[in-house]
């Protein structure tokens, strides 16, 4: 009898080892695609050599959507669950006042209904806003996935709540409108017991990465073929725990999106600002100066939260002018602007968010040539008039260093000066463009008033450009001067 029991235990142990072995084989955990010296090695030095896919730098404008179960309480921020469970007072009080004792966060999931979610209407809104790409939260730190994850049973939008593949529907809709589709994906999950086991083992084990994170990311990449992988939730562990370089080597070498995918810089503790196709550095990052690596300013129309919250106040929402400042200053300094709005649990984007996005789209319809396909000029923010930011367009694209100012060999097609404030006397004073106008070979026009060339006068190293009557100008907020050779 003892021999029989011992034999059964040996068989069970072998079966478990075999299960783990097969699981790792299925996930191709170490299959980076680097063979015989071809492709990118799984190390940062080699991965950093990959040229930035051109579409991303040319796009400039993206929309960010934070959508998940946190849209149900829609209070405070998308960190609702963590703030509640770590006893932040206003979250505890909110739950005590509005929900019965012993209510769990998981009970919010069936209330995440998305009954008004119309992916075609959303895609139309984003296209009319002037966006060229979209990034949707496939999974935030709560672990709930907006796609039918094979590793998130009953904690995904197909099994509970909307009963719909939200990632699949929206990706198809935005692509029909000509936009690129991308996904945000949190590496960690606050309360996933497998992740917490790895954390308690000081990240010496990789069970969560091998059995949950990699399979989810590979499923997303194979099923939806995103053009952007926007990683987050990386900061608790080093990049070797997340197997970041292995994943990126596979992504760049063997994945179905290897030619056009771009990734950000959140791949482990101390990695942001050092590695990635583009850098985020931190939320709402806008340095106000030229950087030597492609970067992105991800910011929120609701200045307090990324997810939708019912208790927002009008003063906490970006004005048209504030929105344009972020877009214009970002692009001038070589960045992309990723503009976040949080949808409701019913699947709507509230009117004030729509209004801001549509305003941006109307502005870009007039001034977009100073934004899309543009490059940084020699100067970013005018040294005489701080309300003016510059961009330019060049004949040749610099794929290796897209944020570099023009070189001596570059042919500049146009210089743009974007003024965020209209001068009271209709004379716009600038400093940094003066030497170009002094040559007498440039002509100046106001975008939206094509064919009407402006006059100017130079004095003491400054140029004063006479603008037309403001009542005749199409743009209502922020105006673009275009300088071209005669």
UniProtKB/TrEMBL annotation:
Protein name, per record: Putative alpha-L-fucosidase
Gene, per the UniProt record: LOC111351994
Gene Ontology molecular function: alpha-L-fucosidase activity
UniProt KW Electron transport keyword: no
UniProt-listed Gene3D superfamilies: Glycosidases, Golgi alpha-mannosidase II
Lineage of the species this protein comes from: Eukaryota, Metazoa, Ecdysozoa, Arthropoda, Hexapoda
Domain Glycoside hydrolase family 29 N-terminal: 38-369
Family: Belongs to the glycosyl hydrolase 29 family.
SMART domains to which the protein is assigned, alphabetical: Alpha_L_fucos (SM00812)
